[in-house]
Design brief:
about 55% helix; 19 helices; eight-stranded mixed sheet
């Protein structure tokens, strides 16, 4: 089955030879860690070791018995299978072949609660478990992803060198991989990463829509604008690829982006982030709106029908185009900061709930390279949390407070202009609304509490009495 002599005892085993698994195996092998590969589809493994992995220290196994026999002890096994039941099935199949202190690593997008459960179950059987987020797509897997491991702390010293070797590196050479915390912490951080990714992508799409429908910019003009923005404070992977996407043409010379149906897909991690925020009582409004925007996009037939019935503004934009584009740049930056602020706020709440002891500065470092949301200002986020480890909200850091304060006029003009033009900006406006709500020393929730007490005797606290004392009024 192998196209080359058997390698030395393998440092790690891989189960799941899809594209991500194949590329991670090549990355591991390139960094000096021989790999044993197994998949329930034997043909897939054979094609891999005789194709992309030909001549590499990657050895195919025809059975789980052979697979496990190839691994140095304690065995380290990386699962790259679909999240959900497939992970549990794979673990159950492995258990009869494993010994105390062996390590299973789940590199898929598992829900953090599943990882929490699996960690406890396997630790009770004397095994060690790691649930690690891996971000960066196929290229990242091959050349250096962001890696977010959590699970059994005793397992970390045994995989640290390996995972940090294959991870992306910052400009300073620091690996974008560090221990996140116990049990489900690694997959929780990856989930929040994906939620922020949803927010970032939606904000960029809203900027694109305002440029196109509001200003009438051509695709090349928009591409140039995003490319210019990528040279400044908005420098990021998503801005970079947006500029490239807008310039891409097919074999007929037509813009590829214009041929794509306007219905967005999703794999669920953004929804998990929003649902978790609801469970933990956190106002993750921007990311929530980004998820709902994808749901709305999926109602394509309904939207087409509604467009024939429902009307909106018809007056074109009559202002200064260059001035509006500069406003849009500032608004996008400010809203992006809110997206991260909400994400870190959610992680702070989860840390208090689950006792993971998350290091927010280290998490920001994990995202500086390799991952989808990598951007220049993540260094500023790391600085903020390194300076103030107990920072309650990113918006309260002096640097970010100055940025959003200075961007306010432009931010408000952009949201106002979008409303006047009838262009939806759910994430951009949600970010501004969150900012205004968060800075509000007094919100109208006093009236809301009065309403609740009126119809349901739910009681309320008073401003002239200590917190924790509750009162009821006989309203009728």
């Amino acid at each position: 089955m192998n196209a080359h002599p058997a390698p030395q005892t393998c440092s790690i085993g891989l189960i799941g030879c899809g594209v991500m698994g194949q590329n991670l195996a090549l990355n591991l092998e390139r960094n000096g860690f021989p790999v044993a590969a197994y998949d329930t589809d034997a043909d897939k493994v054979s094609k891999y070791v005789n194709g992309k992995a030909a001549g590499k220290n990657i050895r195919a196994a025809a059975s789980l018995d052979e697979f496990v026999s190839l691994l140095a002890k304690p065995r380290r096994i990386l699962l790259m299978v679909p999240a959900g039941n497939a992970v549990d099935v794979c673990i159950d199949q492995l258990l009869p072949h494993l010994e105390n202190a062996d390590i299973i690593i789940d590199g898929g997008n598992s829900h953090f609660a599943d990882t929490d459960r699996r960690t406890k179950t396997l630790e009770a059987r004397g095994l060690r478990y790691i649930g690690t987020g891996v971000s960066g797509g196929e290229e990242g897997a091959l050349w250096g992803p962001s890696v977010m491991p959590g699970g059994s702390p005793e397992a970390w010293p045994l995989v640290k060198d390996m995972l940090q070797a294959i991870a992306a590196k910052t400009d300073d050479g620091e690996p974008c991989c560090e221990w996140v915390g116990a049990r489900g912490a690694g997959h929780f951080v990856k989930m929040v990463h994906n939620g922020i990714e949803y927010g970032d992508m939606q904000l960029i799409c809203e900027a694109y829509q305002l440029m196109r429908a509001g200003l009438g910019l051509s695709l090349d003009e928009m591409s140039d604008t995003f490319a210019e923005w990528n040279q400044g404070e908005l420098s990021s992977y998503l801005i970079e690829i947006t500029a490239a996407i807008l310039r891409q043409r097919d074999e007929n010379g037509d813009a590829v982006v214009d041929q794509i149906l306007d219905t967005a897909g999703q794999k669920g991690t953004g929804k998990w982030t929003a649902v978790t925020a609801l469970d933990l009582g956190q106002p993750l409004t921007l990311i929530g709106e980004a998820v709902f925007a994808r749901f709305l996009s999926a109602l394509k037939d309904e939207r087409v029908a509604a467009a024939k019935v429902l009307s909106g503004p018809t007056e074109p934009f009559a202002g200064n185009r260059d001035a509006l584009l500069d406003d849009l740049r500032q608004a996008l930056y400010a809203a992006k900061i809110v997206s991260y602020a909400q994400g870190f706020q959610l992680m702070r709440a989860a840390d208090a709930e689950y006792g993971w002891k998350l290091n927010n500065g280290a998490i920001a470092l994990l995202w500086r390279g390799g991952c989808i949301i990598r951007s220049a200002f993540l260094g500023k986020i790391r600085d903020a949390f390194d300076t103030s480890p107990n920072l309650v909200n990113l918006l309260l850091d002096p640097f970010f407070a100055d940025v959003v304060t200075n961007a306010q006029p432009a931010w408000r003009r952009i949201v106002t202009t979008a409303v006047q033009l009838g262009i939806p900006m759910p994430a951009m406006s949600a970010a501004l609304t969150y900012y205004d709500g968060y800075r509000g020393a007094r919100l109208p929730a006093n009236l809301l509490q009065a309403q609740r007490d009126y119809f349901g005797a739910h009681t309320y606290e008073r401003i002239d009495r200590p917190r924790g004392e509750f009162f009821h009024t006989q309203w009728t």
